[in-house]
Specification:
Layout: E1 9-15, E2 18-23, E3 28-32, H1 37-48, H2 56-63, H3 68-83, E4 91-95, H4 101-108, E5 112-117, H5 120-125, E6 134-136, E7 150-156, H6 165-176, E8 177-188, H7 193-200, E9 221-222, H8 225-234, E10 237-244, H9 250-253, H10 264-281, H11 285-297, E11 303-310
Parallel strand pairs: 4-5, 4-7, 5-6, 7-8
Antiparallel strand pairs: 1-2, 2-3, 3-9, 8-11, 10-11
């Protein structure tokens, strides 16, 4: 894809030799200049997935010994099914499908599935990729892949990684989403109110950590809850529902400063898991959904999940 946008900005952050701008033209923060396709491809092929042994969240996801991620997949499908027209077929296209976890879960729940995974390393690790109908290919070359249109297109922690998210959305709208279908996307909630509060309180004497969530080249793009909703609306998508997940930033504010002390992060994660699992297993779906929907309204939560339709 070729980008012709003239990027303009008044605010920027420098980190790791990169500049991240609050782009007025795009409507979100992003790395500038945008890295080349070759530079980004080399990063993901040679570094991102190969570091799995050092990535506890990814290794947890693969094993999922306590079913935490299965619970998250169930929550996601429930929200999708509330938004999707009953007359549409139960078909899902998962873009950036990783190791196929969400597609595998959805397939067991009666959905016809297909996926796209850009990493050859991850793709070759999926023993059932034929059953799940997963293709290996670039997210930004979706229009060149042989993909069927689907009732639901999901992007779980994908848009923050791509060079041109506007073009990705355009292809999804024009070629991959059936009329009346649902786009479900998840991105980190960054440059958020709680992150701002942390810089003024817990991290006030550590200015080098004020933008701890900025991580080029891993993340090229950054949205908050509110800027993502504006971004979707500005690009022809009507937001149908918005929720977040557990606001991890409350832990440093409560004295568990995993930003200055990363070893605390594991404890914080497990506490969050315990909270969500308890509500889920006791059947308090409504309370759980209401909590995170209310948090989304004020822009609080570590990730934002939005369901939207063309229009």
């Amino acid at each position: 894809m070729k980008m012709s946008i003239k990027h303009t900005y008044k605010r920027s952050v420098k980190k790791g030799g990169f500049t991240v701008i609050n782009c007025l033209a795009c409507g979100f923060w992003h790395v500038y200049p945008v890295p080349s396709e070759n530079e980004l491809s080399a990063y993901y092929q040679n570094k991102y997935y190969q570091n799995i042994q050092d990535n506890r969240s990814m290794s947890d996801k693969l094993a999922d010994l306590d079913d935490f991620y299965q619970i998250q997949y169930g929550d996601r499908l429930r929200r999708i099914e509330k938004t999707l027209l009953s007359t549409l077929p139960k078909t899902i296209l998962d873009i950036g499908s990783g190791y196929g976890d969400f597609l595998r879960y959805s397939n067991k729940k009666g959905w016809d599935v297909q996926g796209v995974e850009p990493s050859r390393y991850a793709y070759e690790s999926i023993t059932d990729h034929k059953q799940l109908n997963i293709k290996c290919g670039s997210v930004e070359d979706l229009d060149k892949l042989d993909l069927a249109s689907a009732s639901v297109v999901t992007l779980n922690n994908v848009l923050e990684h791509v060079r041109d998210p506007i073009s990705v959305l355009r292809i999804i709208k024009d070629k991959l989403l059936l009329p009346g279908g649902v786009l479900c996307l998840i991105v980190p909630n960054d440059f958020s109110i709680l992150q701002h509060i942390l810089t003024k309180t817990v991290l006030r004497r550590s200015p080098q950590k004020h933008f701890y969530w900025v991580a080029p080249l891993d993340h090229l793009n950054y949205w908050s809850v509110h800027s993502m909703k504006r971004f979707l609306n500005n690009n022809g998508l009507k937001v149908m529902s918005t929720t977040t997940d557990f606001p991890m930033e409350v832990f440093p504010l409560a004295g568990f400063n995993y930003i200055d002390n990363p070893e605390i992060g594991r404890r914080a994660h497990l506490a969050r898991v315990k909270f969500e699992k308890y509500l889920y297993r006791k059947g308090y779906f409504g309370i759980k959904d209401s909590i995170f929907t209310a948090l989304a309204h004020i822009g609080v939560g570590r990730d934002v999940q939005i369901c939207a339709k063309v229009g």
